[in-house]
Amino acid sequence: MRSGFDGAGVFPGDRREKLRIAISMRDADLSALFTPPVLARLHEVADLTTPDVLGRLDTADAYAALATAEVLLTGWGTPRVDAAVLDHAPKLRAIVHSAGTVKTFLGDEVFGRGIQVSSAADANAVPVAEYTLAAIVFGAKRVSRFAHQLRTRRATRSTKGLPQIGTNGITLGIVGASRIGRRVIMLARNLDATVLVADPYLTPSEAAALGAQAVDLDTLCRRSTVVSVHAPQTPATRHLLNARRLALLPDGAVVINTARGSIVDTGALTAELVSGRLDAVLDVTDPEPLPPDSPLYDLPNVLLTPHVAGALGNEVHRLGEQAVAELERLAAGAPLAHPIHGDELSHIA
After folding, report:
1. Burial degree of 206 (CB within 10 A; 0-12, 13-18, 19+)
2. Which end of the chain is more exposed for a tag (fewer CB within 10 A), N or C?
């Protein structure tokens, strides 16, 4: 284990010197993530080991920058941080990630060396949950079907032949009590809805505290008017919503996916959507994007968006703000507010 932490796993004492940090991400993302006031806060608590943003971590310049770094500030596009990189960073005590998942570039070796890890996944969960709430309302209101009517007929709306319309009294099924799933449950309190949640790591009492009822996934599928997917992408969750479970959904149910495309069996869902039995709002697909000849592009009961639920535009400022707040905590000797632990990697997004 690395030295330099107290028993709580934080930087010790009342620090008087600035943190030494290196930054590794896509260069263009630095100004997008960090507004000038937030960058000013960063420089108040940290000195850069190099003025350059490190796009690679396997060069002589990168090794020189890492040699004195206590913290590595990462983001989209950060290369893999493996044992070879860590061997060139003997003073590294923490990795603060200014984006969502860390699974794409961190492995067990980081946690095995006692390095703290923080992620801005909580900040990224905010716009995804907001998008999901909109998708629940739009899906239940059959907005894609009405928009198709208007686009093709240039006429006023017709409810003839449409499934049940509206959110009043719907049953909302949340697949995965992740950060985003929990936020969606919270936002769904604004709807007149019964909320079910299926998550193998969630107890009935924890679900009740969230305002939901814990059920198994098959029961959720049978009972839900709207199903929203918030599970992580793991080997165990591939095609979690397969043909059998999709067939359990009642006629007219809406499937929402803002998580990962592979969690839903695309072929099975396509068959249900082509038949018109189900509706869908899909921000992610498998593959992504779909092939040009996919029927999902043109179906009236499908709303497709190109992976826009996560932070975009001014929403990414939340991520930079959260990352700098974590640096401030480290500089003050306080524990991280958004830590990621090694034993969580197998079941987090």
Report:
1. middle
2. N
d(CA 193, CA 299): 27
Is 260 one of the catalytic residues?
yes
CA distance 169 to 195: 10
Write out the residue limits of the CATH 3.40.50.720 domain(s) in the chain: 19-119+314-347, 124-304
> Is 277 marked active-site?
no
Q: What is residue 345's predicted lDDT score, i.e. its pLDDT?
A: 73
Our answer to whether residue 288 is catalytic in this structure is: yes
Catalytic residue among 41, 93, 142, 260: 260
Q: Is 38 exposed, middle or buried (0-12, 13-18, 19+ CB in 10 A)?
A: middle
CATH architecture of the domain with residue range 19-119+314-347? 3-Layer(aba) Sandwich (3.40)
pLDDT score for 8 = 40
* Residue tagged active-site, from 206, 288, 315, 328: 288
